[in-house]
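Side project, low priority. Logging it here so it doesn't get lost.
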Amino acid sequence: MENIVTLADAVTAFEPWMEPTDAELAAIEAEAPLLAAEVEELDTVIALMDRPANELDTRRARRAHARVLAARAALANTAGTGEAA
């Protein structure tokens, strides 16, 4: 029987090229508000799936979607200036 422990070490070994670069980390950090807004919108949609939506639920979903659009616009505006690139 062949021992596969050495293969596990090779798969999980630390390699410097496997880590994200500073630029990639900066891009992730710049996208964090958009990701948070998208998660909040998804949470809202999921919460509204199992019941009929009333007027307050509709407003909640619209506000969550508006936050996503605002975060996308802010990210697009900062990407144009080179801050998030």
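Brief comment: Residues 22-48 form the longest helix (27 residues).
Revisit when time allows.
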